[in-house]
Amino acid sequence: MPDALVPAANDALPFSTRSELRFLACGSVDDGKSTLIGRLIADASGLFEDQIRALKADSRRFGTTDDGLDYALLLDGLEAEREQGITIDVAYRFFSTARRAFVVADTPGHQQYTRNMATGASNAELAILLVDARKGLLEQTRRHAAIVSLLGIRHVVLAVNKIDLVDFSEVRFREIAASFEAFAAPLDFHSVTPIPLSARDGDNVAIRSQRTPWYPGPSLLAHLETIETDPESAEAPMRFPVQWVNRPDAEFRGFAGTVASGRVKVGDPVVIAGSGRMTEVVRIVTFDGDLQSAEAGRSVTLTLKDEVDVARGDVLADPRQRPTVTRRFAADLVWLDEATAVAGRRFLLKLGSTTVPVALTRIVDTLDIDSLERAPGEALALNAIGRVEIEAGAAVAFDPYDANRGTGAFILIDRATLRTAAAGMVVESLDAARDVHRHAETVTPAVRASLKGQIPLVVWLTGLPGSGKSTVANIVERKLAALGRHTMLLDGDNLRHGLNTDLGFDRAARSENVRRVGEMAKLMTEAGLIAIVALVSPFQADRTRAAALMPEGQFLEIFVEAPIELCRQRDPKGLYAKAERGQLANVTGLDQAYERPEDPALVVNTSEISAEEAADRIIAKIIHLG
Question: Would you tell me which CATH number, out of the four given (3.40.50.460, 1.20.1250.20, 1.10.10.1150, 3.40.50.300), belongs to the domain 5-230?
Answer without folding.
Answer: 3.40.50.300
